[in-house]
Amino acid sequence: MEEKTDLSRRTFLGVSALSVLGLAGCGSGPAAPQVDVQVPQALLDQAVPLRGGSVGMLSQKLYSETANEALDTSLQAFAQATGTTIRNDLVSGDAGDMVAKMDAEVKAGTSRDLAFVSDLRFVGQLHNLGHLTDVTDVVEEMRVLYGEPATEAANFCVFDGRWYAIPYHFIATGMYLRKDWYEEKGLPLKPHYTWEELRDNALEVSDPAKRRFGWGLTVNRSGDANGFIANVVNTYGGAIADNTGTKVVFNSPETVAAVEFIGDVYTNPKYAPMLPPGVGSWTDSSNNESWLAQIVGLTLNQYSVYADSKTKNNPVYANTHPFNGATGPAIDRPLAYGQSNSFVVFKGAKNPDLATLVAKFMAGGSALLGVAKGAPCLVNPAWDEVWDSDPYYTSGDPAFAALREQTRAPLPLTTTTGYAFPQAPSPGEQAATAAYLLTDMMQSVIQGTRPAEAVASTHDRIVQVFEQQGYEQ
Where are the alpha helices (DSSP H) in 152-237? Predict the structure, then answer.
């Protein structure tokens, strides 16, 4: 796979069998946090017969360049400590064709040995294609080293009782509002709100003359828009697929009601004052940029925007109220359980033993610490005892306690319509979401299609995707 524009390659050569401390990240950009990266003796012992070997690795690019540099630092430490070579490529998870390119590589016999990708978004598709190695023994070994993984991982990484992905780091879900704007209007700061409350509050805090726009959410093609639309549909009682992940159930009264709610936000003149200019063409970075520019009062995002405001000393950090998300008519708790970036080892890997050793190293202790500091609250331990490995995770940010609790969330969360979240991993749903069928649906509503018609049409398109994945409807 040749990607001239969105891949950058970093190669780390092993030159020493000793652990390496405080290595500077390679490449350009912000300096990575200075962390003493040490390879545990147990992993050094396992690496002895692998000395001189090499692996190719594909990394889902992190929002924070500082975190990407810290990841490089950890890989460099491992390579030098073990006398091995690691070739690491970065790729955007939002390009829309990542799975297709991985599929082509594996079939051509040119794939990397391992990759880390979002378990929620990609692992099910890769497993369905038959490209992943069973890593249950690795996960069981890591339980001894690091305790239990985040509860969500058992849903997205396990198929027929076997693990096909190794949790790397946990990514919490979150929403953020401007607490200073809310306080000016006497609005309460709560652990969660209904979607209707958020809409009405966004209008109340808006003042276009002051470049204050209360609603910082888009329905344009982007990962954030996919998450927003799906969350509203789910909290209203709808779903793309049933709990088995195999049967499309999208066309329902609950889904239509959710789409009516979203469509009204973007088409009703009443709400025009709370919509920032250009929101209809936003991409995944646009809401981050608008939040950091302090012109929007609400956004839904991973903790990337929170991390950026903290690391860059942006004044919006002190004025941020993070909360777990919104509720709807079908559930009185936010559907907040997060996801993990998880390592997968491809079938046909040239050096699978070294690949799994890299994964075991990267998920623990000091190897993760620099990455976590480079993206505070965005990159978090996926393993329970790693949370206790450094005081940073207990005192580094006020949000950490809530984030750790999200990794332990009792699951599933069930709506009044019977859908249990997280649902079974669904390659069909992952593929339909990656194809931006939800955002296309909302664009058609904004352009005048009745919500019921848009939902019915999108249901038919989703059925086609599921059948392409081998699930007859």
Answer: 153-156, 179-184, 195-205, 223-235
Q: Other C-beta atoms within 10 Å of 411: how many?
A: 15
Query: Each residue of 415-446: pLDDT tens digit?
Result: 999 999 999 888 899 899 999 999 999 999 99
CATH topology identical between 8-172+338-407 and 174-335+435-468:
yes
- H/E stretch holding 462: helix 451-468
Q: d(Cα 98, Cα 82) in Å, to the nearest integer?
A: 30
In which band, very low, low, confident or very high, does the pLDDT at 14 lie, cut at 50, 70 and 90?
low
| Parallel/antiparallel/unpaired status of strands 54-60 and 114-118 | parallel
41: confidence class by pLDDT, cuts 50, 70, 90 = very high
Q: What distances in angstroms separate CA 280 from CA 95, 96, 292, 331, one per listed residue?
A: 19, 19, 19, 29
User: What CATH number labels 8-172+338-407?
Assistant: 3.40.190.10
What CATH code would you report for 174-335+435-468?
A: 3.40.190.10
Q: What tokens were used for 249?
A: 């159930």
Strands 339-345 vs 166-171: parallel, antiparallel or unpaired: antiparallel
Q: Where are the alpha helices (DSSP H) in 23-173?
A: 41-47, 65-82, 98-108, 124-128, 136-146, 153-156
Q: Could you give the CA distance from residue 249 to residue 240 in angstroms, rounded to a whole number?
A: 6
pTM for the whole structure: 0.77
Q: Are 61 and 116 in contact (CB under 8 A)?
A: no
CB burial class (10 A; 0-12, 13-18, 19+) of residue 227? buried
Longest alpha-carbon distance in the chain: 68
Beta carbons of 163 and 134 less than 8 angstroms apart: yes
Contact by Cβ (8 Å): 236, 255: yes
Query: What tokens were used for 438?
Result: 């939800």
What is the full DSSP assignment across 359-416?
HHHHTSHHHHHHHHHHSTTTSEESBGGGGGS-THHHHS-TTHHHHHHHHT--S-EE-T
Q: 198-212, 236-250, 304-318, 383-397: lowest mean pLDDT where?
A: 304-318
pLDDT at position 21 over 80 = no
How many CB atoms within 10 Å of residue 293?
12
First-to-final CA distance of the chain: 33
Element holding 432 (H helix, E strand): helix 427-434
Ordered by start, the domain boundaries in the chain are 8-172+338-407, 174-335+435-468
